Amino acid sequence: MADSIRLQVSRYRPEEGSAPTLQEYDVPLRKEWSVLDGLNYVKDHLDSTLSYRWSCRMGICGSCGMSVNGTPELTCGTFLADLAPGPVRVEPMRNFPVVRDLVVDIGDFMDKLPRVKPWIIRDDEPEPDGEYLQTPEELDEYKQFSMCINCMLCYSACPVYGLDPDFIGPAAIALAERYDLDSRDRGARERLDVLIEHEGVWGCTFVGECTTVCPKHVDPAGAIQRYKLKAAKESVKAFLLPRGAR
Amino acid sequence: MSETEVQPRAYRRPVSTWWWLEKRSYFVFAMRELSSVFVAWFVVFLLMLTYAVGRGDDQYQSFLDWAATPWVVVLNLVTLVFVVLHMVTWFNLTPQATVVRLRGQRVPAWAIIASQYVGLAVVSAFVIWLVTR
Fold this sequence. Notes:
The complex is a heterodimer of chains A (246) and B (133).
Chain A: E1 4-11, E2 21-28, H1 35-46, E3 65-68, E4 71-74, H2 80-83, E5 88-91, E6 98-100, E7 103-104, H3 107-112, H4 136-143, H5 153-157, H6 159-163, H7 170-180, H8 188-195, H9 209-213, H10 220-240
Parallel strand pairs in A: 1-5
Antiparallel strand pairs in A: 1-2, 3-4, 3-5, 6-7
Helix pairs in contact in A: 7-10
Chain B: H1 24-54, H2 57-67, H3 70-97, E1 101-102, E2 105-106, H4 109-132
């Protein structure tokens, strides 16, 4: 194994205007080093002006998502040794405005999340004395969709979101499904009103890349298709049944 | 809730018209979407065949002659390839969209895919029997 590997890092300085450029750095190639370790080496030893987001280094905070050789990845879980001999192209996540270097503006995602009402909705009953009880089987129903860490790799992989930023997007819909499938929740109707819009589930054309890139195996594409079935059933019901029977 | 302001000097990377050539998975997706046009053509072809059959032997024979011309044969072969692509890709995607439960257990993806192929085989066998009996 060679003892170093070249990183081609996208640099964007808003004060200088113009488009991002690639800057090359040679970093040590160590078996246990991730792309994020490489970036930290650059920051500590080669170029302290490089900007990027990171926090936990163990695939749970969802901060260090970037485009590595064109693929959306958590850089803390992508190892340099697997990309040897390089070079490794590190760019900001696609489909988001770039603020500086590898840092993207996540405001749009933060605005979209609360629109699907990702909390337990119970407006018809008084609160119980203790907690709402749930069986392990009921937990299994939604557990997969609750594993999302908001890393936004799915938005970065989604060509629909790239072409139409109004699309509410994979993670938000998967999160809506997480609460819909929760036995304690009664808010499915309210969420459907948001997601049945054109920018909701019908924007999705089932490319499936969101599921492929998801580091937590949430399967947002599956959640969206299940929502489409739900939405279609509701539309048929609304057409066929009198108001009281829906 | 107020919309979060986009940074004024943020850089927006333009999306290329050819984005669907950038990755194999995007390309397969684009071809799957395109395959719908060919599925529609097979429907039209079948309707034309039915119409010709209904108008008597002469019309049916002239339809068969037209269908045997090289360009129609080539078009139908290309259509067949796209229809097979359409079928295989959609069969593979079905388990993601449908959750089937039997006796409390979720039916595994392979079983849902396999059942579609079984369904296809049964319908095909029936059509072959109907046409050749």
